[in-house]
Amino acid sequence: MVIATERRRFPVLDPADGSVIDSLESAGPDDAIAAVDAAAEAAEDWASRAPRERAEILRRAFELMTERNEDIARLIVREMGKPLAEARGEASYAAEFLRWFSEEAVRANGDFAVAPAGTNRMLVTHAPIGIALLITPWNFPAAMATRKIGPALAAGCTVVLKPAEETPLTALAIAGLLTEAGVPEGVVNVVCTDDPAPVAEAVLSDPRVRKLSFTGSTGVGRRLLELCAPQVISASMELGGNSPFLVLQDADIDVAVAGAMAAKMRNGGEACTAANRFLVHDSVAESFTSRLTAAMSAVRVGNGFDRTAQLGPLINAAARDKVERLVADAIERGARVRTGAQRIPGPGYFYAPTVLDRVQPGSQILSEEVFGPVAPIMTFSDEDEAIALANETEYGLVAFVFSRDLRRAMAIGEEIETGMVGLNRGVVSDPAAPFGGTKQSGIGREGGHHGLLEFLEPKYFAFD
Ligand code: ADP
Q: Where is each Aldehyde dehydrogenase domain found (predicted)?
């Protein structure tokens, strides 16, 4: 018997003015277990569908999402705040994960070999790993959802998706679209809550759940890994970053500035891949810094629906407080403000595009993710020093290297402890590429073929 209770509701806010867009019932642990029940009920049927059938459903979802690009984009702007043009870009990037994994669904290939000693044959097959809990952040409300749902469904898993409390509406729209595309009931279950800890605890304590795929902060990631330990749940973790952006002596400065604008300002700096530390060779430092300052000062800030806006608000007051704290600390320790370094008065959580140079070692901004439109610049005189600085972090998600000599840039990229490297470009993300980090930036990869493997369990058969 279900006892109807009046559930608490939580508001979804527009970060451009703090107004309430909508409110949703906040799911608790019982609702989360009901979602696991639904995922369990749908699991066998979904896993036994022909890979081609799963592929075609995902392909239809890609097509629907492409048709609905504008609707999804508008929802993203409302609850997350990025400019409409960027939101359209995210909605197509998100759809591409569905297309990519519709193609990967038929490539869960195994292996066959003769044992090295010649004693027997070895056959390896792949099966869906089981029910997966997917926890996504607010910065890419659509793309983080499809980057996890795509491979999970392609692999034959059923899922419980827990979107960020700031951006649940986009996730719900995507779930609706998947149903329309033919995803059977119970395969994708969305649990919205503003109290995620008890929900995650309940789901990860359920022995039917075999996978966690999480994107978010390293602190929460560590806690979730602890929750995975008792039942030895497989965890894919996309955590924080502290990306170094290296400009070598021989870099093309125009290319480096364009790359810096992309690496810093994509998503308003609210990306784990955002360049967090600019390390520039002494000889080109002023030229790079003055051109970057000019480009940053020209960025138009405004409501994401304003046609001219290139930078929207930060997600909430706490995010802006953090940016302010990091900037104030850097200035106190001797950094110089080239532009910005102030909030923009009025409603919403706007912060001016900021360039700081002469950032001093020990400044908090060098060790914490700023997650906002702030570019802190340091200089170096030799490349070994630059590599050492780049590696001076517990994170290792992405690094950017700018040099006219691709071989030299590549050699430096090889020395940096990181999962991804952008060579003379400021964006690396692609659904076809393995996205992920080393060190405390995470475990596992999303996208590419690797993304599918995260949701598959190999099974090895030995026979004569
Ligand atoms: P951010 O700082 O970017 O908001 P978080 O790591 O706090 O990153 O959030 C990423 C996701 O993790 C969101 O869906 C959020 O609801 C969820 N989350 C936050 N805290 C917890 C927790 N204790 N247990 C489970 N999920 C959590």
A: 6-459
Would you say residue 436 lies in a domain?
Answer: no
Residues sharing a CB contact under 8 Å with residue 270, sequence separation 6 or more, in sequence order:
139, 314, 315, 319, 371, 372
Is the CB of 223 within 6 Å of ligand 1? yes
How high is the pLDDT of residue 5? 57
> Does residue 238 have an active-site annotation?
yes
- Looking at the fold, whether 264 and 287 belong to one and the same domain comes out as yes
Please tell me whether residues 188 and 294 are part of one structural domain: no
What pLDDT, on the 0 to 100 scale, is given for residue 7? 80
- Copy the structure tokens of residue 93: 């990037």
Write the CATH number for 208: 3.40.605.10
CA of 92 to the centre of ligand 1 (A): 25
pLDDT for 6: 65
Q: Are residues 6 and 148 in the same domain?
A: yes
User: Tokens for 456?
Assistant: 């598959």
Continuous H helices in 105-242: 143-155, 168-180, 196-204, 218-228
Greatest distance between any 2 Cα atoms in the chain: 75
| Cβ count within 10 A of residue 19 | 12
Residue 2 has a pLDDT of: 47
- Check which CATH number belongs to the domain holding 247 and give it: 3.40.309.10
Is 392 in the same domain as 318? yes
Cα-to-centroid distance, 133 and ligand 1 (Å): 13
- For residue range 72-99, list pLDDT tens digits in order: 999 999 999 999 999 999 999 999 999 9
Question: pTM, whole model, 2 decimals?
Answer: 0.97
Catalytic residue selected from 79, 86, 90, 238 = 238
- Regarding the beta carbon of 217 and ligand 1, being less than 6 Å apart is answered yes
Ligand 1 centroid – CA 389 distance (Å): 29
Average pLDDT, the chain: 97
Tell me phi and psi for residue 145, to 5 degrees: -70, -50
Low-confidence ranges of the chain (pLDDT < 50): 1-2
Length of the chain measured in residues: 464
Same domain, 220 and 295: no
- The reply to whether 184 and 266 lie within a common domain is no
Please give the ipTM for the structure prediction: 0.98
Range of the domain at 117: 2-239+441-463
- Into how many domains does the chain fold? 2
143 in the same domain as 99: yes
Q: What percent of the chain has pLDDT over 90?
A: 98
Instruction: Name the DSSP class of 259.
Output: H
Q: Which residue has the tokens 């995010």?
A: 319
333 phi/psi in degrees, rounded to 5: -90, 5
Same domain flag for 269 and 201: no
